[in-house]
Amino acid sequence: MEHAEILHRCFRCGYCKLPGNYADINCPAYLAYCFETYAPGGRMWLLRAWLDNKIEAGSRFAEIMFSCTACGNCVAQCAFPEFRDRLLLAFTAGREALLDAGTAPPSVRDWLTRIQNHGNAYGKPAKKSLEWADGLEIDVFDGQEYALFVDDTGIHEPRGREIARAVATLLTTAGISFGIIGKPCFSDGNDVKAMGETALFESLAEKNISIFNALNIGKIITLSPHSYNVLKNDYPALGGQYQVFHYTQVLAFAMGRLPLSADRPGLTVALHDPCYLGRHNADYASARMVLQALPGVTMVEMDRNRADALCCGGGGGNFFTDLLSGGDDTPARSRAREAAAAGAQILAVACPLCAIMLEDAVKSENLDKTISVREISEIVEGRMDLQGNAR
Ligand code: SF4
Ligand code: SF4
Fold it and tell me: How confident is the model at residue 391 (pLDDT cuts 50, 70, 90)?
């Protein structure tokens, strides 16, 4: 197993499961189950015991290993800079070894099989891949400055489609030169890679890259931070060299071009930093710039914010494989309580997966009369005057 040589270096001191001020639990898997084996240090020791033939790879072991959301908190917090950058790489390598050994939880196997067979996580036919844009006045990419890449959730999930449509509407209204990709694309592969299915990831990426390159695409705007991460950081090694932007990074510099209304009621907004914009790519500013440009919006911060933000629990494929659900202390429910405690009326998110995870959590916590979860694109759209139909 790659990176096996770092496993014995873990002291199980436990800093990796906490935020920077040590005040809370910040590893989503440990938060949900409170067993040391779910914490990063416990994973290291479990993997080491397995490689030393001291334990067998049973179903419980597989559930633990695949429940990591790849949020990156442990990488940011581990007390040992000599090896902390490799923690997630080791967990991914461990999952790859488990997949090779034929040991993966059924929900993981099913999710990967759907992607393998259909090219998307929902098992939907490719012909449905442009339906999300039906009725919108947007062009197919044909040499515009940017191509818009929409992830599986934006394409196939009703809630994701609403968000994709809001983003496309904002880009159009701001006069951004962009087109949607007219051919069916494949899953971006970000979470497939995090789950250790390297061969499937490379196959997905190579198919997308051949579509992008045939169209001469140079700049890409993504709906999802997961797509942003993998297109920016992993596609170049496979021949996909693009300038990649999350939509908030483009919008942050185009807010002055939107017809924002000055007479909307005041709103108190807390931002949930997505792991793949924040910890993985160090952008804590763009989403805040967009929100701060909205007249009447007052921002508050949750206790855990920026590099200390708690993952919603949907990363690393868990949105689809659901290995952290159930109980009062799912990461999403903990986050919903934290947003309410911060006094927010709106919990703003910048990712379709976070939106769905946190909307469910707010309902489970009976907080839906106190706080609403809104994607940033929807908050902005709702504060524009559009042809007299402003919301
Ligand atoms: S902080 Fe690093 S050394 Fe300490 S338990 Fe976590 S992974 Fe192990
Ligand atoms: S990446 Fe996140 S979920 Fe996975 S072990 Fe590290 S802190 Fe826990």
Answer: very low
